[in-house]
Amino acid sequence: MSNWIGDVFTSDVGWDHLERLVDIGNRMAGSDGEREAAELTRDALVEAGARNVRLESFDVQGWTRGESSITARETTQECIALPRSPADRVTAPLVDLGYGLPEDFEDRDLEGSVVMVRSDIPDHYDRYLHRREKYYHAVENGAVGFVYRNHVAGCLPPTGSVGTDDEPIGEIPAVGVSSEVGARLARRFDGDEIELTVEAEIHPAESQNVHAELGPDTDERVLVTSHVDAHDIAEGALDNGAGTAMVVELANALANREAELETRVEFVAYGAEEVGLVGSSYHAETTDHETIAAIVNSDGVVRDRTLSVTTHGFDELEAAATEIAERYGHPIETVPKMGPHSDHWPFVRWGVPGYHVKSTSDDVGRGWGHTFADTFEKLEQRTFREQAILLTDLVVHLARENVTVEHRAPEEIAAALEDQGLAEGIRITGDWPYDE
């Protein structure tokens, strides 16, 4: 055991790949940079020793950022468009809704307004509210514009897509503003008429998923996944260059332990995650769910030192993570709740066992993620290597013939979403897949 651990802890394979990814620049879904990142990942998986390495392309709704602005009285306030916002100019009263909780929308007349909401939730609130949920509450209540205010200080406007599977482009123009600009808007201009302008080019585009394999040629497989795309405003080091670098590192480590794999391991680096889980949804629609033993999806790893795995109520997944943590005397946080965001979800929602692997944080939201500040130097190679050791052994464990994680009925997943208060948000964003 110690030999491979030493190899992983001294390996630069994944870390070097992360540096190559962030140096590309723009990895927005459907862009040339995303294609370059996918090709680099394909080549890294070949070099790691994986087989059947390939790109699989699919169509996406392309969106290219233009200029955006907020004009309030004699001032112009800095903002950036949210991806898949329509290009539009609206003039309407600004309404500051604070956190933008569901009840906040019910308590105000928002018809014909521009709604501003924060990107976090209050400490007492029992679930995270995704950006798109707040956006579609605004749409449903008659708003004509949407302003998403970062709660993280530092003059960092947040990005993040709007739109749905059926309507990839959102219904009202949407922008992100920094915490400081948001505070200024709320203090000086709440109730005043403002002008919100978004310029964007909407066009057909193509994205791609990267596939590779290791281990015996069994029908059953363990998926090891990430997403290779990132928002166009930043390097995308944390979100999700680190996740794709982890896939490459795990492939390199598992190639050296291939004789221990009793089930095929399929590596997939998805495209177009940031614009609606498009790549993973495409894969989920075109592959056999019954052959998937488990999914290990890295999205948010390396932000902090301790791994956190959302297990979606699969007891066997929780037990496996706990066993690995105890083996190394190294903590792994297990979260048994549903986590309907990131590339595991198009599978998990139908009962396929899956982890969302990230890292612990006491902060709400993405931190530097989805801002200009998501850059390479904020991550530590030591943390990357430690987490790679734990995840390598977790994948080997899941690939054993005597380890079985039972699939769940979709009705059970739907019931859990209802019980955990998540169904409302999934319904309003148009993502509820179950028969009512």
Automatic annotation (TrEMBL):
Chief location category = endoplasmic reticulum
GO CC annotations? extracellular region; lysosome
Where it sits in the cell: the answer is:
Endoplasmic reticulum; Golgi apparatus; Lysosome; Secreted
A GO term for molecular function: metallodipeptidase activity
* PA domain mapped to chain residues: 90-185
Tell me yes or no: is Protein biosynthesis among this UniProt entry's keywords: no
A single Gene Ontology biological process assigned to it is: proteolysis
Which of UniProt's keywords are assigned here? Carboxypeptidase, Endoplasmic reticulum, Glycoprotein, Golgi apparatus, Hydrolase, Lysosome, Metal-binding, Metalloprotease, Protease, Secreted, Signal, Zinc, Zymogen
- Locate the transmembrane regions by residue number: none
Q: Where is the Peptidase M28 domain?
A: 209-388
Fill in the subunit field for this protein.
Homodimer. The monomeric form is inactive while the homodimer is active.
Record protein name field? Carboxypeptidase Q
Q: What is the scientific name of the source organism?
A: Natronorubrum texcoconense
Q: What is the lineage of its organism?
A: Archaea, Methanobacteriati, Methanobacteriota, Stenosarchaea group, Halobacteria
